[in-house]
Amino acid sequence: MVHCTPLTCTAPNLPRTLEQQLELLVQALHDEARLLALSSALSLEGDYPRAPHCYSRTILHRGPQGEEVMVARWEAGACSPIHGHPELAFVRVLEGRLRVENFSKCGKTLEPGNVQELETGDHIWHKGVAHRFDNAIHRVTALEPSLSLHIYSDDALRGRTF
Ligand SMILES: [Fe+2]
To answer: Domain containing 22 — which CATH number?
Structure first.
């Protein structure tokens, strides 16, 4: 499968109340239940850019340790590279449907693992090893036009790609 190169941008001037909610989300990264509750209360509709045949990443918030809150807008069929994550990662589907193919590292090779289909409201949360960027290795494909919320304990673009 051929992955695409996403468009990354930063959201301008968010309302102060939303900024405060995003700060709370970052502080809750260790707590899956709290992340679910806080993300359910968010109102994130917005004019997120379209990336033709791909996906866009709009950074909403950057925390003091590099933590990131991001909304991805996916075109149907768009596919990420196989990639790893910082220690903590939370992804929730706001609209649409995503397929997540998981991999595990076996020496220098990757072994395919289970495949998840996430629908609107579904989420994944993963706690890995601190200071590593090869946690929770997966590839994401949009099965339909989709919008997803991503919260990471560090800049997601530092995640290792394979
Ligand atoms: Fe990911």
So the answer is: 2.60.120.10
